[in-house]
């Protein structure tokens, strides 16, 4: 297992020097944040990013993410041009020695929360998702913004984009994902890297937009549609675990036994009601997910890929990107490393 940490580039208040001081962390999960969505990533920028990370004594373990242009998700006539640009980025990342690309196929919005700084009884604050609050939100005229969202749209463009999805059913969105996979997975194979799709977060439709990567059956459909070692999954315990109907251990054991788990986000959440949850500390006792069982299932299926803590609380007065402060994620990395060390010493692999 490669313990890794998300870094948002030179503008991130969490520096590479900070990350290097976290015991056991050797991998960096990052991306290019100044390339417009849909454009091919310049090779010189990829190499400069890699050099920056390696100069700090770390390695890029995952690119998260290379965003998928909305025209691809919508199945517009322009999608082939954007798929070719995406393929060119895959080739360049492979040439640079990047092993994993994490991406998602969520329409319009990446991960979504209703509150970014909900104060907890201990004085820390955290991200929350309350279904009733989300149902009253206006995604066009609201001011909610999260790390990872494409902020390049004007309100008018955002409204037009959401309207464009009015006639996109789950079946249509799936057809567009299948079209994308059929074209990019062979490129990834040739480039010597793997594609690792992130589940929908949260794992149900929001703002009237369809979502199709939310449960076991949907994950199996996409991995079987293009059956390739390069077509895999980012297992995210928090995203999938927000729906208590998702059996996290069964998902890990099924796809792990097929070597389809290329990357893991291991975070805890506390389910607070129907389609509602808050981000908790990583510790099992603070949330709804048994993190020991999750890591044990990954360990038992032979997982050796990058794994990172995710969406930490803001603690000890820290200010920064919602969900991406240093302190709580560092505690999470240490906790997860401790579980993994205990597993490796009590259940040695043959």
TrEMBL record:
Keywords: Iron, Lyase, Manganese
Classification via Gene3D superfamilies: Divalent-metal-dependent TIM barrel enzymes
GO biological process: D-glucuronate catabolic process
UniProt KW Endoplasmic reticulum keyword: no
Catalytic reaction list: D-mannonate = 2-dehydro-3-deoxy-D-gluconate + H2O
Pathway as given in its UniProt record: Carbohydrate metabolism; pentose and glucuronate interconversion
Domain of life: Bacteria
Protein's name according to its UniProt entry: Mannonate dehydratase
Function as written in the Swiss-Prot or TrEMBL entry: Catalyzes the dehydration of D-mannonate.
GO molecular function, one term: manganese ion binding
Gene encoding the protein: uxuA
InterPro entries: Man_deHydtase, Xyl_isomerase-like_sf
E.C. number(s) listed in UniProt: 4.2.1.8
Keyword Iron included in the entry's annotation: yes
Protein family according to the UniProt entry: Belongs to the mannonate dehydratase family.
Named cofactor requirement(s): Fe(2+); Mn(2+)
Natural source organism: Paenibacillus albus
Top enzyme class: lyase
């Amino acid at each position: 297992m490669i313990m890794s940490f998300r870094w948002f580039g030179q503008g991130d208040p969490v520096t590479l020097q900070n990350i290097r001081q976290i015991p056991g962390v050797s991998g960096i999960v990052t991306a290019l944040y100044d390339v417009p969505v849909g454009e091919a990533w310049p090779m010189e920028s990829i190499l400069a990013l890699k050099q920056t990370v390696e100069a700090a004594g770390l390695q890029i373990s995952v690119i998260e993410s290379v965003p998928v242009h909305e025209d691809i998700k919508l199945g517009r006539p322009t999608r082939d041009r954007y798929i070719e640009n995406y393929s060119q980025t895959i080739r360049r990342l492979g040439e640079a020695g990047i092993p994993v690309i994490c991406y998602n196929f969520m329409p319009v919005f990446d991960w979504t929360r209703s509150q970014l700084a909900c104060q907890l009884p201990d004085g820390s604050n955290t991200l929350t998702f309350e279904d009733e609050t989300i149902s009253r939100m206006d995604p066009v005229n609201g001011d909610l913004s999260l790390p990872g969202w494409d902020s390049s749209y004007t309100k008018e463009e955002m409204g037009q984009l959401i309207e464009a999805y009015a006639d996109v059913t789950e079946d249509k969105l799936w057809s567009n994902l299948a079209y994308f996979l059929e074209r990019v997975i062979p490129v990834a194979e040739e480039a010597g890297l793997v594609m690792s799709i992130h589940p929908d977060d949260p794992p149900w439709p929001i703002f009237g937009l369809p979502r199709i990567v939310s449960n076991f059956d949907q994950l199996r459909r996409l991995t079987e549609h293009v059956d390739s070692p390069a077509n895999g999954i980012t297992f995210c315990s928090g995203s999938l675990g927000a729906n208590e109907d998702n059996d996290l251990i069964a998902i890990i054991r099924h796809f792990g036994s097929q070597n389809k788990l290329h990357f893991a986000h291991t975070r805890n959440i506390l389910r607070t009601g129907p389609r509602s949850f808050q981000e908790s500390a990583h510790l099992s006792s603070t949330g709804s997910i048994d993190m020991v069982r999750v890591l044990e299932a990954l360990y038992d299926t032979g997982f050796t890929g990058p794994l990172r803590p995710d969406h930490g609380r803001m603690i000890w007065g820290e200010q920064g990107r919602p969900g991406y402060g240093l302190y709580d994620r560092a505690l999470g990395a240490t906790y997860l490393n401790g579980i993994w060390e205990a597993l490796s010493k009590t259940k040695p692999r043959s």
